[in-house]
Amino acid sequence: MIATTRRVLSCAVLAAFALPGIMGTAHGATLDDVRAADELKCGINTGLAGFANTDDAGNWVGFDVDYCKALAAAVLGDASKIQYVSLTGKNRFPALQAGEIEVLARNTTWTFSRDVDLGLTFVGVNYYDGQGFLGPKSLGVSSATELDGASVCIQTGTTTELNLADFFRTHNMAYEPVPIETNSEARAAYEADRCDVYTSDASGLAATKATFDNPDDHMVLPEIISKEPLGPVVRQGDDQWADITRWVLNALISAEELGVTQANVEALAQKDGGSDNPEVQRLLGSEGSMGAMLGLDADWAARAIMAVGNYSEIFERHLGPDTRLGLERGLNALYSAGGILYSPPFR
Amino acid sequence: MAAPSSTRIEQLGYLWTDERLRGIAFQVLAVAGLALFFAFIIWNTAANLKHAGLASGYGFLLDPASFDINQRLIDYTSTSSYGRAFLVGGLNTVLVAALGIAAATFIGFVVGLMRLSTNFLVSRIATVYVELTRNVPLLLQIIFWWVVILALPRVRDSISVADVVFLNNRGIRLPQPIFEDAFQLILALFVAGCIGTFVLARWARKRHELTGRTFPVGWSAIGLIFGLPALSTLFVGLPVDLDIPLLGRFNFEGGFNVTPELIALWLALSLYTGAFISEVVRSGILAVDKGQIEAARAVGLPPGLRTRKIILPQALRVIIPPLTNQYLNLTKNSSLAVVIGYQDIVSIGETVLNQSGQALEVISIYMAFYLTLSLLTSVLMNWYNKRTALVRER
């Protein structure tokens, strides 16, 4: 009886999960699907300051949201033709695999098992993050290597627990993990001194610290204990769509490198009297046929830049020193400015 | 040549007009149709899942989990497997469910009796408790108790009991007993006491049935189970060392810690379910025929015996089936633990899911786990229910 009931139940679950799959999975023609629907279905965070959150008017804004806009502008010619799907750390991959979204831009770390085992393709890195620790200054700790015996609040949802376990094991230190799913409860626990330090991605820590009553009483410890390259993800098996998503990201990075901005892109894209740099001409479609190679029209990249600006503009708008998060470019500066951001050439 | 075949057709015709046989035929058809339908769904689902790369099987359970768990009833380190992590989480669920069931039952019986009390104050207090707890969502109550515990003094200002037990907002730190070899003697005496009690109880019941003479089983049980081991310590001393917690740089070190999450979840679950159980108990007691109590009084049974021997056994028949429901609710409600970070099977499953990406497999494990636990509880309670029902018929 137990076995039968269980079997029936598991069938029901499988069926519930698979039905959207039967209807939605496209085989290698995601671009056609997007064009047919005249709308890009973009998976984003449920709410993370700077990356994807709603403004006063209820519109989605943020670093990841701007990538969705750039992609929609490149593919559909209109940055507003997007259906945003907010996803938790739990349902983001099933949503992509089952075809409910066409691209996932949700602070997703590129790892081996996700790329290889889950049937996903990471198309690049739009933010180099790493896991850090936030602690009160009064704790008197200046380095994470002094945390032997501490209680650590963890905001779960990514590979945070794994990095933490690895870090304490390699440093031969003991700790008490306190894993909490939602940011608000994890914050409450940290503020009530349930734990000594709070761990999450450094960008997320900056966002959390910014919302404290006295942000200056807390500090982010210098150690970054993991590599968290965050980037957009698509389903494996549609190379054309993967190419489009990859090169839209590269176009935004190259635009910064080449000095193309939201303000000057229109002027630079002119066939006569525009830029005389051949790479800019190829990028913006006034020369060559790169758009056609992707299955798009010539000014796809120009439209993306017109919609949201280049990488630097997006970063400064949502994450930079003038925002609440106040993040420095750090690793996310261009390779020519001390960072590791590097786009392959447009030729 | 034609005659036999025509009779066969006639026979077939009779088969069709026979109502009973026709009924069977339709049932067989319906079952076959249903089976085909489900076979199609399973086949289709499996094919699509494989195509979407969604289901890759349960092999990942053997991979190392690579994360830590703060409350472990069995050995576990970050190098253990995902499967073992699930086991640790499952045991944590069972722990809080068992503690919750015990406390909720106790609260339920006490409050149920209080509500029936003729004392105005006592019955009113019980009413206020029941209405307050059962009308506020459980999730809020869990967070409420958690916040209350987080408001306790910080580690450095812990409330200490005799400098061995420390209470702070990171839980209750208790001394951990370390057993020496001689402790085995005490353990053996304890087991012997339990067996002795069992034998004694059987003998006493038989004698009671045959001769009507009673025997103080309860007191002898306490003497056998606890008195015997206690007596032996006079000779061998107490062969237990205590690992007493000491304040370290961040936390107390040594001893063992009861986490605030466990305490908050246990309190919330017990108080919430206790309110429902008290209503079940009240209805059960009110269902006992007034004549039974009057008869008990007439034969001169004192009030204590009246409750124990006449009212409760009959009330239990009414109480147990809805009580089973409450136990099942409590067990399933314990999955709300994930909000405050108690590491039950759901909390650990989420971590596994995030790390391995095996969404479907993890969810199927949840379902199988809760189903098994619920069915086991039901089986146990049904067995107990049958026993109380038999007592009545005798």
What attributes characterize this protein structure?
heterodimer; A: 347 residues; alpha/beta; D-Maltodextrin-Binding Protein, domain 2; 3-stranded parallel sheet; 14 strands; globular; disordered N terminus; B: 394 residues; alpha+beta; MetI-like fold; 4-stranded antiparallel sheet; two-stranded antiparallel ribbon
Q: Brief description of this entry?
A:
The complex is a heterodimer of chains A (about 350) and B (about 400). With about 350 residues, chain A is α/β, with parallel strands linked by helices. Chain A has helices at about 1-25, 30-35, 65-75, 90-95, 110-115, 160-170, 185-190, 200-210, 240-260, 265-270, 280-285, 290-295, 300-310, 310-320; strands at about 40-45, 55, 60, 80-85, 105, 120, 125-130, 130-135, 150-155, 175-180, 195-200, 220, 230, 235.
Please state the average pLDDT score of chain B.
87
As a percent range, the share of helical residues of chain A equals 40-55%
Put simply, the count of helices of chain B is: 12
Order of helical and strand elements of chain A: HHEEEHEHEHEEEEHEHEHEEEHHHHHH
* Name of the level-1 CATH class of the largest domain in chain A: Alpha Beta
| Fraction in beta strands of chain A | 15-25%
Tally of structural domains of chain A? 2
CATH homologous superfamily identity of the domain at 82-118 and 261-393 in chain B? MetI-like
- Which H/E pattern describes the elements of chain B? HHHHHEEEEHHEEEEHHHHH
Shape of chain B: globular
Oligomeric organization of the protein chains:
heterodimer
% residues in beta strands of chain B: 5-15%
